[in-house]
Each structure stands twice: as structure tokens, then as C-alpha cells.
Amino acid sequence: MTGKSRKNTPLASNAGPRGIKDIGPVLSMFKDRYVENTGQVDLTPEYVDQIIEMSLFEEEPGKEGELAQIEDPAKRQEKQKQLQRPLRRKAVEGGKMTPDQLIKPLVMALHAETLEFAFPYLHFHRWCWKLLRAVKESTDGLLRQLYTPDYLERENQLPWVVGWIFISASGLNGGVSDRRLLQKAAEALNRMLEQGTGSFLIDQVLGDALGIPVAFEDE
Questions:
Q1: Number of other residues whose CB lies within 10 A of the CB of residue 49
Q2: Is the Cα dihedral 102, 103, 108, 112 positive or negative?
């Protein structure tokens, strides 16, 4: 494949680049005040009540004190629209709120978002980058042969290697499937797994640090 044909190969998604979306709308409302020291200072009951309403969790029917993510698409869409609007003071319906009525749902909403902020995104990012480097090193010679040495110009383009591998295996180049890159990538992945990478992430990161046990059923 020539450099010209390489540039004409569609690699980018029509939907645009992907990234980590903002999470924890309730916790995020306190960021300006306690991290940036620039946010709302007088947290009135009305203001806190509106913050609670931004939560993407709701109390499960018949299970007092237990929250679950909102699954109803219409409700989630309305919540997303609400997050885009500026926070405004409002009168609390039904009269004054007692401290218990205010604090309890706030604590529950904050607790429900704890896992989202505690998830080790950067830790997993490092391991994913190590895997991409291993795959790149394993497939580099063949990638240069198929797509010229310009197939990768900067390290931040490492994820593109995955695209080149799937393009080759799917037969998009001339309609002929070439699975050699896929095989070499599988070998690189297996070598990392044999070194204990998978068990480390499952046992120490997900299991011990986050309390999310992962088990596999033997077929």
C-alpha cells in the first residue's frame, strides 16, 4: 500500500473522537467551592435540593435507602438536559425542609457517585498503553511492509495500530483478508497475560481496591 492510499483509508469515526464523559453531577457541584474556592458559598436548603435533583441515581421502589442508576431512557434524557442548564435557586415545594429530609438524600446521592470517582482510570490507561506498545512492537515490521513506515508518526497515535490490524483482517484493502497482524497482536496479548497482568488487574485493582470481585465460569 502506498502512502497516498494510506491517507485515503478511513480511520476516524464519523461520530467524532471518543473521550471520558463528565460523571458525578452531584459531586461535581462541590468542586468549585472546595477545590477551586470559587463556587457557591451559601448552600441554602433550596440550592442543595436542586443539586440533589441532578443525581443520575434514584431510590429503588420498596427498598428504602438503596439507590440504583436511572434506567428509564426518558428520565435519563431529561436529567442530561437538566445538567446542561444553569443551576438556579427555587422554592422548595411543600414548605420548609427538615435537616434530615435535606441531608439524607444528599448523602445517598454523594455515596452513589463515589465509585465513579474512585475508579482508577489513569491506572487502567497505563496498562492499556503498555498493551498497545507491546502490540505495536510485535506487529511493527509487518505494519511497515503493509502501510509504509509512516503508518505511525507519534506515540499518541498508538491506538491507530488497532485500526490498521482490523482493516487488514477485514479485507478492506483490496477485498483480501490478511490475518497475520491479528495473529501477532494475539501473541503479544497472550505474553502479557502469561506475565500475570490480567490477574493483577482483576485481583488487586478491581477486587481489593474497589471491592468488585470478578469470577469466570468454566464451560
A1: 19
A2: positive
**Mean pLDDT confidence for 153-165:** 91
**Cα gap 170→208, rounded to integer Å:** 39
Task: Give the 3-state DSSP-derived string for 83-117, with helices as H, strands as E and coil as C.
Answer: HHCCCCCCCCCCCCCCHHHHHHHHHHHHHHCHHHH
End-to-end CA distance of the chain: 43
Burial 130-167 (b: 16+ CB within 10 A, else e): ebbebbbebbeebbeebbeeebbeeeeebebbebbbeb
Q: 160-170 and 180-194 helices cross at what angle (nearest 10)? A: 130
- Kindly report the backbone phi and psi dihedral angles of residue 154, in degrees, each rounded to the nearest multiple of 5, phi listed first: -140, 155
Residue 21, pLDDT score = 65
Give strand pairing partners of 68. Answer: 58
Q: Which three cell numbers stand for residue 196?
A: 500475570
CA distance 57 to 112: 7
Identity (one letter) of the amino acid at 133?
Answer: R
Closest CA to 56 of 93, 88, 82: 82
DSSP string, 40-51: -----HHHHHHH
Q: Is the pTM of this model over 0.70?
A: no
Confidence label for 2 from pLDDT (cuts 50, 70 and 90) = very low
Distance between CA atoms of residues 188 and 134, nearest Å: 6
Q: Where exactly are the structural domains of the chain? A: 25-117, 120-209
